[in-house]
Each structure stands twice: as C-alpha cells, then as structure tokens.
C-alpha cells in the first residue's frame, strides 16, 4: 500500500524528493523535517552563498595571479629583447643607440642584474672605442663614468682592476678631447694595478697614458714599454694592447728631439719583430706607414744610421720586409728611403757587392731627397773607392762659384736650377746680372748682352711651365709635398725676378718696346695675386717709369714722358717701395733726364 493509499494525498520529501504521506512531518526515508521553517531556509541559502563567494574569490585570486605572472613575463621578454638589441648595436659600433636600449631595459625592470651588467660591459666597450660628437663628449663621459663607479660594488679583484682602468681611461679620453679631468688619473691607474698587477687593461691604458701625458723622454718610453710587455701577454686582448702601444710610440717617433725619436723608432721596430715571430697580425696600414716614415723626415734618412745599431741586421731586414709586405708604398721619397735602408743593412751583413749594387740602383731615383742622395753618394764612395759622377757634377743649389768664368757659371744656373726652389746659386746669378745691367746703363759687352737677350726667353719659359703647373694644382686644390704652396710661390717669384733681368737686358739693348711689353705681362701676372706682392708691384711700376723715360728721351714723345711720370709716382706712393728698388740718386739721374723740364717731376724730386 502506498503512502497516498494510507494517508490520502502524498507529497515529495523536501530533502530527498522521495514520496511520503501528505500529513507526514518527518520523512521516513531520510529523516528530514518537512516543516517549512524560514530560518532554516535562510541558513541553507547562506551556506550556498558562502560557498559561491569562496569559489568566486578563488577564481578572482587565480585571475590576479595570472595577470601578475603575464606582466612579469612580458617585462622579462621585453628586457631580453632590448638587451639583445643593445648587444647587436654595440657590435655594429652604434654605442649611443645601444646605450638608449639598455636604459629602456632598466626603465622596465630597474633592478635587473642582466641590464646593469650589460650597461657596465657597454660602458667599457664604448670607452675603448670612443666616438661621439664633440658637443656630446662631456655628458657621455660623465654617464659612462657613473656606471663604472657603481660597478665597483661587489666586484672581484680582477673586475675591480678592469673597471678602475676604464675609469682612468675615461679621464685620459677627456684629456684627448681637451676637457678637464675630474679625478687623479695616475692614482686611479695605481689603484687598478694594486687590485691586479697583471690586468691587461690597467697596464695597456697606463702605458698609453704615460706616453700621452707625462712628456716625451726616453725614460717615459721605457716605462711605458714595461707596462705594455705585461699587457700583450694575454692573447685574447693583445690586439687592443698593441693598438695603444703603437699609437703611443708613433706619436713620439716624429716631431721630437732626435734622442726621443730614435728611442721610439727602436721600440717600434723591436715590437714589430716580436709580432712577426709570434705570427701576430700586422699593425694597421696607417701605423706601418708611420713606422717606415720614422727613419727620416720627408725621406731624408736622418735616423737610418742610429736605427742600424738598434737590432741585428738580419732581424732588422726581416722586420722591415714584414712591415712593407702588401703595403702600397709608392711615394718616391719614402720608397727611396726604404731602398737605402735595405742597402745599408745589407752592407752591415757583410754583403758588400750586393749592397753596392743596391746603392747604385738608387742613382736612378730622380725624386729622392737631396740629403738621401748625399748619403748614397758617400756609401758608394765607401764601397767602391770613388764618388759617382753626379756627386762631382753641379747641383745648381749651392755649388762653389766658378771664378774662372762667372758668366758661364751663372748662365748654367739659370738653365738648370729647379724653379720650385730658390737656391743660393740662383740668388747669385740674379745679383750678378742685376749688377751688370743696372749701373751703368749698359755695362755688358754687346756679344754677351745679345746672348743674354736671346737666351732668357727659353729660360723664362722653363720657369713659366712650372708656374702653370702650380696654377692648375691650385685650381684643383691638390697641393702635395712634391708640389706645395711654397713651391708654387717660389716659382712665381723666380719668374718675376728673372723677368726683371730680361727687362733690364732689353732696355740696355735698346729694345724698349719689348721691355714695356714684357712689363705688361708681368704686371698682369702680379695683379692676379694677393696683396702680399706689394713690393713686386712697386718694382714693376718703377721699371715701367724707367723704360718709358728712356724711350721718351729717344722718341721725344709727350705720351711716353707722361707715362714715365705716372708710373714713377705710382711706384713712389706704393707701400712696397723702398731704396732696394731704386734710390733717389737713380731717380734724379740720367735715366730720367727726359723728365727734367716737367714741373711735376721737379716737384717730385725737390729736396731729395
């Protein structure tokens, strides 16, 4: 019988949902009360609500933790990407941009050990290859130095030595860029060596600092070499140490006194030989050129004899050949000097015949320095017992003046001297012909005067070609040591001085029209030059006055007399006029007798 049959209409239990009698107070199945109690319902509802809240709280906490984790991971990945970019930029030597990337990484994670270590490495690398705009140098050096000082905390001895060395190098870099130092450079390097006496950077940077700052002396060269000797022991960082070593020594190999230059050259040669034996890479091409140039200024070989005594000749030859290998060393003077050194070292080896052949081959070098030519001539005389013919021939520079036939001696000088120079023999020739042509008006015998007039145009053309060559080089802004601004100026002046002789010779020979035409060409040439040629302008004006005055005396031309007076005033009122151009006795003399009736001329010479 069912509950419905026993007790009328049935119902479901409020708890287990089984069927019970409609009047039942207690469920016979689960024992639950069937009373509809509001408080009980409320309690039940609260229990469910608490469970739901707990679940929601757990879910919210999990979401928050997931957000924190995701943010941390994103920052970590961003820092890694920025540091990778910074490393890549540093490898391409874009240190400024690399520094910015590192700063961004530290901005994302201020306490990132990886970012700080990366910035410390970058600071040291940037200092070793410092390249910034001059206006930014001070700020960059300050920032880099701050990072280095922070890196000292917790650093071991070797790391401390390295950091301190770079702090000192930052100050040395300030000195190179003409900025004041902010700490005692020597004290910092000493502290670095106390931390680790064998540290590569401390020794290399201090060695360079000694050569850079403490002055040019043999003692300082020796002191620096002792530091570099330690620095180059480390094969991994040897290239950097060598760069500082060679750049510092090369600075002392030129522009110092002979003792210092020779000590620097000796050190460079010995270190080069050591590098060759150790199969190290050759120094930079620019370094090798400067080492080879250190044997003599402009190829004059003044340090060759001292250099020969620095090393055994076989080692010296090997080191020299190693430095020359693969080098485009085509400058004539420098190449001649290199050949002379090889000949000299071959002689030291005792190979006299071979050395003589090498010396004699240098006789063909047309552009070798005259000082080197003298050394070659003496070497040939030393090995063969006689000077080469060229040593006995005229140089047209400072040869003893021939007393037997001074005319021919000076004519030969004008035909053969180098117009780029103003040698003593040229000055002597100009003085000789000026004296012969100036006082009296015609002092040369007719045959010699005719020869002079006929030969001077060719001599002038020879100089004029050199002047034109210089004009072309000037337009191209391509002056070199073989044809410099000084060579150009010398050729111009030599052309005008010899032109003066030509004008005087034409005047003395009665060829006044040609003399005036020649002066016109000279005036045009001088007018194209700068204001420094005032003396030459005054001289040309006086020569015009002189030629016109003589022609006026012959032609009785008023125009010639007027021109003579015009140019005479122009000369006298010029800033460049002096009694070296003309004296008042000459101005009042017979040359200007055609002007004596002119009131303006008489007023000009009144009281003189």
Automatic annotation (TrEMBL):
Transmembrane stretches, by residue range?
Answer: 48-69
Tell me the superkingdom of the source: Bacteria
| Key words, A-Z | Membrane, Transmembrane, Transmembrane helix
Name by which UniProt lists this protein: Tetratricopeptide repeat protein
Q: Which organism is it from?
A: uncultured Desulfobacteraceae bacterium
Print the organism lineage.
Bacteria, Pseudomonadati, Thermodesulfobacteriota, Desulfobacteria, Desulfobacterales
């Amino acid at each position: 019988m069912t509950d419905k049959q026993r007790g009328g209409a049935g119902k479901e239990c409020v708890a287990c949902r089984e069927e019970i009698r409609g009047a039942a107070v207690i469920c016979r199945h689960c024992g639950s009360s069937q009373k509809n109690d509001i408080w009980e319902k409320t309690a039940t509802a609260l229990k469910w609500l608490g469970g739901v809240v707990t679940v929601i709280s757990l879910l919210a906490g999990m979401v928050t933790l997931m957000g924190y984790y995701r943010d941390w991971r994103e920052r970590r990945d961003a820092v890694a990407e920025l540091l990778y970019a910074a490393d890549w930029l540093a490898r391409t030597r874009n240190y400024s941009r690399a520094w910015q990337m590192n700063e961004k990484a530290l901005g994302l994670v201020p306490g990132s050990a990886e970012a700080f270590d990366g910035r410390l490495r970058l600071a040291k690398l940037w200092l070793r290859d410092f390249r910034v705009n001059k206006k930014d140098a001070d700020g960059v050096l300050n920032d880099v130095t701050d990072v280095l000082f922070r890196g000292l905390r917790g650093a071991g001895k070797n790391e401390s030595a390295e950091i301190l060395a770079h702090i000192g190098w930052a100050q040395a870099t300030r000195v190179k860029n003409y900025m004041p130092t902010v700490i005692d450079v020597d004290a910092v390097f000493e502290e670095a060596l106390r931390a680790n006496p064998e540290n590569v950077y401390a020794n290399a940077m201090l060695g360079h600092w000694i050569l850079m700052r403490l002055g040019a002396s043999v003692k300082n060269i020796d002191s620096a070499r002792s530091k570099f000797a330690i620095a180059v022991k480390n094969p991994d960082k040897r290239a950097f140490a060598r760069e500082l070593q060679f750049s510092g020594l090369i600075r002392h190999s030129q522009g110092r006194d002979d003792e210092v230059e020779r000590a620097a050259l000796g050190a460079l040669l010995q270190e080069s030989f050591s590098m060759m034996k150790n199969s190290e890479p050759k120094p930079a091409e620019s370094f090798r050129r400067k080492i080879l140039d250190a044997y003599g200024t402009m190829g004059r070989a003044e340090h060759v004899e001292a250099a020969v005594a620095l090393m055994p000749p076989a080692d010296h030859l090997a080191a020299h050949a190693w430095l020359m290998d693969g080098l485009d060393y085509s400058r004539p003077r420098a190449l001649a000097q290199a050949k002379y050194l090889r000949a000299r070292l071959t002689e030291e080896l005792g190979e006299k015949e071979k050395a003589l052949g090498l010396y004699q081959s240098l006789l063909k070098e047309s552009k070798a320095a005259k000082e080197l030519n003298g050394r070659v001539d003496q070497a040939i005389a030393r090995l063969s017992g006689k000077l080469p013919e060229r040593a006995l021939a005229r140089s047209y520079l400072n040869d003893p003046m021939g007393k037997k036939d001074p005319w021919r001696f000076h004519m030969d000088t004008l035909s053969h001297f180098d117009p780029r120079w103003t040698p003593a023999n040229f000055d002597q020739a100009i003085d000789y012909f000026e004296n012969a042509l100036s006082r009296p008006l015609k002092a040369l015998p007719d045959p010699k005067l005719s020869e002079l007039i006929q030969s001077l145009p060719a001599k002038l053309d020879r100089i004029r070609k050199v002047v034109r060559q210089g004009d072309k080089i000037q337009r191209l802004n391509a002056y070199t040591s073989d044809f410099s601004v000084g060579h150009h100026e010398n050729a111009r002046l030599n052309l005008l001085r010899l032109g003066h002789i030509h004008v005087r010779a034409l005047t003395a020979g009665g060829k006044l029209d040609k003399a005036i035409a020649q002066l016109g060409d000279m005036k045009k040439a001088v007018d194209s030059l700068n204001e420094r040629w005032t003396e030459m302008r005054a001289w040309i004006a006086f020569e015009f006055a002189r030629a016109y005055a003589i022609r006026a005396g012959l032609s009785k031309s008023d125009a010639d007399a007027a021109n003579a007076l015009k140019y005479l005033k122009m000369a006298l009122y010029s800033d460049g006029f002096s009694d070296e151009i003309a004296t008042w006795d000459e101005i009042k003399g017979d040359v200007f007798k055609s002007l004596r009736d002119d009131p303006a001329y008489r007023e000009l010479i009144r009281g003189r």
